[in-house]
Write a structure and sequence with these properties.
Two copies of one chain form a homodimer.
Chain A (H helix, E strand, L loop, with lengths): L1 E5 L4 H12 L3 E8 L6 H13 L3 E6 L23 H4 L11 H16 L3 E3 L15 H13 L2 H5 L4 E3 L7 H11 L21 H12 L11
Parallel strand pairs in A: 1-2, 1-4, 2-3, 4-5
């Protein structure tokens, strides 16, 4: 069975790729170069694709800095740093990129239908304090309807299924899952800042560091602090 | 009220842009350079944007030839030509581009949320024989749910509304509507082949020519045949 995996190169999507492999899928990875600050994650996506042995890794390019609207696509906006996990859970953060997962899933759908894949895997997670609207179960259900109604495949046969294995997991559970699947954490990248070393203070670093620490594990990534 | 209008430069989307203007909207047009054969339509989109006096015209570039899957994005596939309107209605044609409207609407949603628009206009039409799955009312409803659930705006306030004024119109009714709104047909482009003159035989040309002819009107575009 063919599957398309949305792969950012981060901890979550890398775990999802290994989950798809464990599910017996022939894996086709797709990543996006949207001029994000942390384009460094694309190198990680390429490394993880190689170590997982994907059939193909597509990188789709477009430019979301055209209109900005997020701290991840507008260099003039400051990244939030040094917030506690509780502060993160309060509201939708400025790292929210309008319609990002909708754009990503749309391209994954196009790719999946073209190659005849039955599944699209995505590493969204509703519990990791991020508050992103496009990471919640009702949103994924709505996209599933789009997959069914908006394609030839969905109209004439069985719709391509969205698989979101991390949806209800805590970050620590994701790290445990990744460990059990053999994900090479040193190849992944989570930091939003995109420097040589991970900053350790952006929301994404904080969540990652907290999870490794809670589990008593060592994160092999180099951190500034 | 701000509105984003999906503008291909064809007859339908140009009419929709003029409809949005007539509805009193401040118009922001968005077009896509996806390496389609008929990229010539982008010149038309620019012309129509100017004549309609839009506030901004964004052209988003990405490459759907990465995986092909359609006669519009794969030069090795032949365009269907010389089919009757009845033949066109039989099945989903090879000019179907997997997930195209889903990709287009996703970018329009991102743009709309960023600029604070209340509406996204799209020129889909369920009756023009095309058979495209992503031009039908139930699909548009599914995307409306995505607009509501997948954005900050939809979660915290009123969702950005998808407006599809041509959904239930026949091609002749669209031409009549465009005429009443003052669309300059000579600036539009419909032909899939993308030559200097319109081919006159591809599905898109056939539908356009038949509509003008049925209404006893002259299409100002130059045709090969």
């Amino acid at each position: 069975m063919k599957a398309v995996i949305l792969l950012s190169g981060g901890l979550d999507s890398s775990t999802v790729l290994y989950q798809a492999k464990a599910d017996g899928c022939e894996c086709y990875a797709i990543s996006f170069d949207y001029q994000q600050r942390h384009r460094r994650e694309l190198e990680s996506a390429a490394k993880i694709s190689r170590s997982a042995g994907v059939v193909q890794h597509q990188v789709v390019k477009f430019d979301l800095t055209l209109w900005g609207g997020s701290a991840l696509t507008d260099n003039k906006m400051e990244l939030p740093g040094d917030r506690s996990l509780e502060q993160m859970s309060e509201k939708i953060p400025i790292t929210y990129v309008p319609a990002r997962n909708t754009i990503f899933l749309s391209f994954a759908l196009a790719y999946a239908e073209t190659i005849g894949a039955e599944r699209v895997y995505i590493g969204v997670n509703a519990l990791d304090y991020s508050g992103y609207p496009d990471c919640r179960p009702d949103y994924i259900e709505a996209m599933q309807s789009v997959f069914r109604l908006g394609t030839k495949q969905g109209r004439e046969g069985e719709a391509i299924a969205i698989v979101a294995p991390l949806l209800e997991l805590k970050k620590t559970e994701i790290v445990e899952l990744g460990n059990s699947l053999g994900v090479s954490w040193e190849d992944t990248w989570s930091c939003y800042a995109g420097g040589e070393k991970a900053c350790g203070v952006c929301d994404s670093c904080r969540l990652r560091v907290a999870a490794f620490s809670e589990l008593g594990l060592t994160d092999p990534l180099p951190y500034v602090s």
